[in-house]
Every structure is written in structure tokens, then in C-alpha cells.
Design goal:
Number of strands: 7
Shape: globular
Order of helices and strands: HHHEHEEEEEE
Largest sheet: 7 strands, mixed
Structural class: alpha+beta
Strand content: 35-45%
Number of helices: 4
Length: 155
């Protein structure tokens, strides 16, 4: 009886986390991009994040209008976190990804930053915006990897 209770709890825990790692409507290389993006933020790895943002990155609705400004903003945010607070990015996919042009995909997301202290959730807040974010992702023709080309706030 007790074993069945624990087994049910483990199943629910696993199902919850697998759904967070495998959002509905996202698969293949696009899923791998979002996983890598989450790992870069969660591990505070700016070099990994740098590879996920296109050199041609631009934005009209954010202060961070080029790649260097965006990387600097994220790095400043992550550096300010004490060593015992761990970030955990959660990305909610708000629209079905759409192919816009050859090798470009448009998707709307809502990034949520969870901060954990000793495994306990300290706070959850939208990461960098109060709204949803429209992303335009560019797929590298040679390697097939995605990178962020454009990011705009959705009102």
C-alpha cells in the first residue's frame, strides 16, 4: 500500500517534469534549441547562451537591440544572483511554431524565471518582460541549429 502511494507520487512528479521539458507542439531541432536555452540560463553559462543568439540579432521593442547588449543584460542578471540561489527557466509555448521564411520559425513564448534556494522555490517571475515574447528563430543551413534572430514584446 505504501509502495503504491510512493510509486504514484513518483509517476506524477515525472509526468510534470517531462511535460515541462517537452512542451506540446515543439519537437525535433526546435525542442533541442529550447532545452539548450534553458540549460544555458539554469547553469549561468554565458558562452553557451552566446551560441544560441544569432550574430544578426535585433530587437525594436527592447532596450537590448543587439546581441552584445542582450548578453550583457543576461550576464548582469545572473551575476547578481548569490551562489546559493539557482535559476530555473520555464518556457511556456503560447503559439504553435510557424515557418515564416525558408529556415526561419516564428513562435510566441512566456519565459518564467523560478529562483530556488536549497531546492525550494523562492519566487517565480516573468523573465525580462511583463508580457509574452515573439521569437524569430533562424536555422543554420549547414548545421541545422537554431539561434534567436529577433525578439519582440507582444502586447
Amino acid at each position: 500500500m505504501l509502495f503504491d502511494f510512493f510509486q504514484s507520487g513518483i509517476y506524477l512528479f515525472r509526468e510534470f517534469h517531462e511535460n515541462r521539458w517537452n512542451p506540446v507542439g515543439v519537437e525535433g531541432d526546435l525542442l533541442l534549441f529550447f532545452r539548450d536555452f534553458k540549460r544555458a540560463i539554469d547553469s549561468k553559462d554565458i558562452q553557451r547562451l552566446k551560441r544560441l543568439i544569432s550574430d544578426d540579432y535585433y530587437s525594436h521593442s527592447y532596450v537590448n537591440q543587439n546581441k552584445q547588449q542582450l548578453l550583457s543584460w543576461v550576464q548582469n542578471f545572473l551575476i547578481k544572483l548569490p551562489f546559493f540561489i539557482n535559476p530555473s527557466l520555464e518556457i511556456e509555448i503560447c503559439t504553435v511554431p510557424q515557418v515564416k521564411e525558408e529556415q526561419k520559425i516564428y513562435v510566441v513564448i512566456r519565459p518564467i524565471m523560478n529562483l530556488h534556494v536549497l531546492g525550494m522555490n523562492l519566487t517565480s517571475q516573468l523573465f525580462g518582460t511583463n508580457n509574452q515574447i515573439a521569437l524569430l528563430l533562424k536555422k543554420d543551413k549547414k548545421y541545422g541549429l537554431f539561434s534567436i534572430l529577433n525578439m519582440e514584446e507582444v502586447a
